[in-house]
Amino acid sequence: MLLEGKNLSFKYKNTDYLFENINISVESGEIVGLVAKSGYGKSTLSKILAGYETPTKGQVLLNGKKLPNKGYNPVQLIYQHPEKSINPRMKMRDVLLEAGPIDYDLIKAIGIEEDWLTRYPLELSGGELQRFSVARVLNEKTKFIIADEISTMLDVITQAQIWNVIIEFVNKRNIGLVAVTHNKHLAEKICNRIFYLEKENRG
Fold first, then answer.
1. In whole angstroms, what is the distance from residue 184 CA to residue 50 CA?
2. Residue ranges making up the domain that contains 19
3. Domain count for the chain
4. Rounded distance, CA 91 to CA 96, Å?
5. Cα–Cα distance for residue pair 103/198, rounded to 1 Å
6. Rounded to two decimals, what is the model's pTM?
7. pLDDT digits (tens, 9 = 90+) for 134-172
8. Between the N and C ends of the chain, which has fewer C-beta atoms within 10 Å?
9. Domain harbouring 6, CATH code
10. Residue 43 CB neighbours (<10 A)
11. Residue 34 · residue 145 · CB < 8 Å
C-alpha cells in the first residue's frame, strides 16, 4: 500500500502559508522520518496525512484514492498530547475497545498495567495515557501510523520501550510509519529515510 501527500499547502485565514507544495509518501513496511524544528508545520502536516485536517491545496491519497470518511481510518494519528485524543468520560478499557479486542500481550509489552484499565484518563499520567494512545492504534485494521512527537514528554526508558514495541509491530504487520520529530538523532536511528520539512518548505 502507498500513502501519498501530493502538492500539500496549508494556511489559516489571513495568514501566510505554513508550508507549500509538499510531496511526501510512505509505503507499507517503511519507516519515514518527518523532521523539522517547531513552527514549520509538522503537527499540521501530520493531521492532514491522517485526514484530520484539510489542506488548503493538494490532496492525500491511499492507494490512489481519498481517505475514507466513514468507519475505521486505516491511517491512524498518535498525538504528542494524548489527552487530546482520549475521551475523559471513558474508562481506559473502553478507550482500547473502541479499536477492537484488547491484545493483552501487546499492552503488557508496552507497559500498561491491567489495573489501569479500570481508571479514567484523569487518574493517569501523561506518559501512561500515551501508552494507551499507542496501544489503541496497534491493531490489524491500521495500515499506516503517523506518530507526531509521541515520545517528547516521556522519560528516556519509556521512550525506548514504546518505540521498540511500535517498530516491532510495524515490521511484523508491514505497516507504514511516519515518525514526526524534531530529534534528528532519533530519526536517523529508527527510519529507513528522512524527509526534512525545513528544506522542502520553501514555497
1. 22
2. 2-200
3. 1
4. 9
5. 38
6. 0.93
7. 999 999 999 999 999 998 778 888 888 999 999 999 999
8. C
9. 3.40.50.300
10. 18
11. no
